[in-house]
Every structure is written in structure tokens, then in C-alpha cells.
Design brief:
Layout (H helix, E strand, L loop, with lengths): L1 H24 L8 E2 L21 E2 L3 E9 L11 E6 L7 E15 L2 E11 L11 E5 L6 H17 L5
Antiparallel strand pairs: 1-2, 3-6, 4-5, 4-7, 5-6
Length: 166
């Protein structure tokens, strides 16, 4: 009888120790969000050193959208300008945000040159996903009607005439 109790107590102590060790192996993210590390299942079972990164958790409540702005309109961009996005999967919804960063490099795709502007967009419902495509509008502020109507034609003429000037 004494021997059976002793084995039971020993087994209970081992079980408590194993449960404690198991609790130490659980990883918890310091923030709520969406796991964006690809092939996370292949990392299971790896030994990690203290402070090592296991996975990346992204804040799904706000997303960064990249908007390609034609080179000719890049001078009109201002940080803090309002942005409206219509994404292909949601053609009737408008997602609103604010311009956070304007790219410093001009990109070329075919015959078109453009600057990438990054906008921070609220995504409380989690509808926006990485890689989605759509169209965006960046507010350039209020301008006189003449500026809006004649800006492009005058710019075109200036670009044709300027090389001819001495």
C-alpha cells in the first residue's frame, strides 16, 4: 500500500513538472494581430534562443497601402493628404486613409513612370489583405478650376517648347 502511494505521488510530481515545462514552451505574441510568417508549420519544434524571432505578427487593424502616382502628379503629393481606395474585391466600398510617406525613387513600368506613395488605411473589419489590387485617389487640396483644367495641356506644351528655347 505504501509503495503504491509512493509511485502515485511520484507520478503526480512528474506530471506537474512536465506540465510546467510544457507551459514554458508556449509562445505568446505581445500584440494582437495576424500571423504573417509563411510556412510557420515548418518552424515548429525548432529550438530558439532567448529573444529569437519565431514568427511575425502584423497589426490587421491598420494596413499600409502602396499607391502608384504618375510622375507628373508627384509634385502635388503632401504628407497627411487624405487617400481613398477602391479595392477590386470590394468595388462598392471606399477605404479611407492618410498619406504617410512619399517614395524618393521614380519607378518605370513600360512607358509609364511613377512614384510609390504609402498610405495608412484603417482596416477594423480585416477586409483588406496583403496583395490586393485596386485604385486609389490622393487628395491634392483645393485648386482653382483653371489650374485643374489647364495644368496638363500647359505642361505638355511647356515640355515640347522648353527644349527649343536657347
Amino acid at each position: 500500500m505504501f509503495e503504491a502511494r509512493s509511485r502515485r505521488d511520484e507520478a503526480a510530481a512528474r506530471l506537474a513538472l512536465e506540465e510546467e515545462q510544457l507551459a514554458r514552451t508556449q509562445l505568446r505574441a505581445p500584440i494582437a494581430g495576424v500571423l504573417v510568417t509563411p510556412h510557420i508549420d515548418q518552424r515548429v519544434g525548432q529550438a530558439l534562443t532567448r529573444g529569437a524571432e519565431f514568427a511575425v505578427v502584423a497589426d490587421a487593424g491598420r494596413v499600409t497601402a502602396e499607391v502608384a502616382v504618375p510622375e507628373g502628379d508627384a509634385a502635388l503629393l503632401r504628407i497627411g493628404a487624405s487617400v481613398a481606395l477602391k479595392m477590386n474585391p470590394f468595388p462598392t466600398r471606399v477605404f479611407r486613409g492618410e498619406l504617410q510617406r512619399i517614395g524618393a525613387e521614380l519607378r518605370q513600368e513600360g512607358e509609364e513612370s511613377f512614384v510609390i506613395a504609402e498610405a495608412r488605411v484603417e482596416n477594423a473589419e480585416g477586409a483588406l489583405k496583403a496583395g490586393m489590387l485596386g485604385q486609389g485617389k490622393v487628395s491634392a487640396g483645393a485648386r482653382p478650376l483653371g489650374f485643374a483644367l489647364f495644368r496638363r495641356p500647359l505642361r505638355y506644351l511647356w515640355l515640347k517648347i522648353w527644349p527649343l528655347l536657347p
